[in-house]
Design brief:
Blueprint (H helix, E strand, L loop, with lengths): L1 E3 L4 E3 L15 E4 L2 E7 L9 E7 L3 E8 L3 E12 L2 E4 L3 E4 L4 E6 L3 E7 L3 E3 L1
Antiparallel strand pairs: 1-2, 3-4, 4-5, 5-11, 6-10, 6-12, 7-8, 7-9, 7-11
Length: 121
Amino acid sequence: MVDDTADARILLNIFSVAYSENSHDWKPLRTGVDIALLYGGGGAADAPAAALLRYAAGASVPLHEHCGYEHILILRGSQSDEHGSYGTGELIISPPGTRHSVTSKDGCMVLAIWEKPVRFV
């Protein structure tokens, strides 16, 4: 559930968000990956942002480099990269300069918070 106030957007019980998909404005991001922007992503190309990402089974994001810190909290399901597999409740922090590609065999939903957008390589 989302509580919008004049000064803050509060996601009550963050893990329940993964099961209330209809309360978000989903848009296609890549084939098999949808995004629901929470903040940012507007005019400034390198501005911080946060979003929910919903991966269909088998969806992937190609190799990319992190230009700033990125935090990924797995809310439901699992995803993998070259470094391992991550499931519900796990937090992945990618520092600037790191690279990986992401796939989700069975689908997942994550909370993504990034300092700067990634650069695809």
